[in-house]
Specification:
about 400 residues, alpha/beta, 2 domains, two-stranded antiparallel ribbon
Length: about 400
């Protein structure tokens, strides 16, 4: 009887010590987890501060299209602006676009243009409003026609003559010492054709190429003053060469003394106009990744694709499908105050930060599981101790 009582007493004592041991273990796990959380948070904040610093060092310019008429919205569109199916001829639409863009940290628009009566009239209105709102403008000259064929050199020279005569001296184009004109479709032209144009206008315009790789730019590097890469369809989550390609292009353009305009887009879906690839937005995370890559590629400016290209679904303009999510991401990246949500009828899901912040959630969840398990085991251990003590007394 004495031996049995001794054995049970020893067992009860050992089990009574279990809760204390478990709490010691829990404290160790808690300390380790807190250290991990602090490290992850510090790393995430350092990355945010680094990106914010980069964002302050380079202008953010959004590609802007002035081709819309009210009937344009019935063709190849599956999303529509919160402002309605507007005409680009409406000056109040232009003004609201600029106000929203400025609030989100966009410094200016890269206006898609070639000389037609309609586009000239709209460009004049936009210049006037941009100057009133202290907002910069650049031009992306559409060097290809609707069928993607190169325009005649004489046509381009005539259009740029008009631009220099009528628009180039406006203060809206004063971000650089000469107005920036990106020549869309330079890969369709020979070096000799490009030289005819750029040599003629070099004193009045900074003409940039729109080449899509290092070899393409090196082909004409001495004839232009930089490069703007319009890469709207890249998927940053699957293209493993994405960041290295941007950095290689930056190094090449800068080696030739040119301006480098790095691309960033919120997503892409051009299936209604013959495209095949789709880049999901992931509630703003695609744009975050592309901004990070663009600002990390030593840009002289970042070309945001786009303000309002609705046919390719690369727009950041507030829309019925995506609300103001893209502008919220931009405001966050540019260290701007939160946008006044009363200005938007946003039906998009709340922005969910990804990347390293997911690690915070995972570690937090593990903490809850560990502590919960410890409490359960401790309670069971106390219950078992009480039962064993009762049995010992009975013996």
């Amino acid at each position: 009887m004495i031996q049995k009582q001794t054995i049970h007493a020893m067992g009860a004592g050992w089990r009574a010590a279990l809760p204390r041991n478990y709490w010691i273990l829990a404290c160790c796990l808690l300390g380790a987890a807190l250290i991990g959380l602090a490290g992850v948070f510090q790393s995430a904040m350092a990355q945010t501060r680094g990106n914010a610093q980069l964002a302050q060092n380079a202008p953010l310019m959004a590609y802007y299209y002035i081709w819309y008429d009210t009937q344009s919205w019935s063709r190849a569109k599956n999303d529509f602006p919160l402002l309605g199916r507007y005409s680009s001829d409406d000056p109040e639409i232009m003004r609201q676009h600029i106000k929203w863009a400025k609030a989100a940290g966009i410094d200016g628009f890269i206006v898609s243009w070639k000389s037609t009566h309609r586009l000239d009239s709209r460009l004049e209105k936009l210049i006037s409003i941009a100057e009133q709102e202290h907002f910069w403008l650049w031009i992306i000259y559409q060097g290809l026609d609707f069928d993607r064929n190169a325009l005649p050199i004489e046509h381009i020279e005539s259009d740029l003559d008009l631009f220099v005569r009528d628009y180039a001296d406006h203060t809206a184009f004063g971000l650089t010492d000469r107005p920036v004109v990106i020549w869309s479709g330079t890969w369709k032209y020979t070096p000799e054709e490009i030289s005819l144009v750029t040599s003629r206008f070099r004193d009045r315009l900074q003409i940039l190429a729109s080449e899509r790789n290092v070899a393409g730019y090196e082909r004409i590097a001495n004839l232009v003053e930089g490069n703007a890469y319009y890469w709207s369809s890249v998927n940053p989550q699957t293209n493993t060469n994405y960041r290295s390609k941007l950095k290689a292009m930056a190094e090449t353009v800068h080696a030739h003394g040119g301006l480098w305009i790095a691309p960033a887009a919120p997503g892409f879906d051009a299936r209604l106009v013959g495209g095949t690839s789709v880049v999901e937005r992931h509630y703003g995370d695609t744009l975050r990744q592309e901004l990070d890559a663009a600002f990390g590629a030593s840009p002289d400016a970042v070309g945001l694709i786009s303000w309002n290209e609705f046919s390719e679904n690369s727009h950041v303009e507030p829309s019925r499908e995506y609300g103001s999510t893209a502008l919220d991401v931009l405001a966050e990246a540019r260290n701007r105050a939160a946008l006044p949500m009363g200005d938007f009828d946003s039906s998009a899901p709340a922005i969910t930060d990804m990347g390293e912040y997911n690690t915070l959630l995972i570690l937090g969840g593990l903490l809850v599981l560990v502590l919960g398990s410890v409490v359960i085991v401790a309670r069971r251990s106390n219950s078992n101790t009480a039962t064993s003590s009762q049995r010992a007394s009975e013996l």
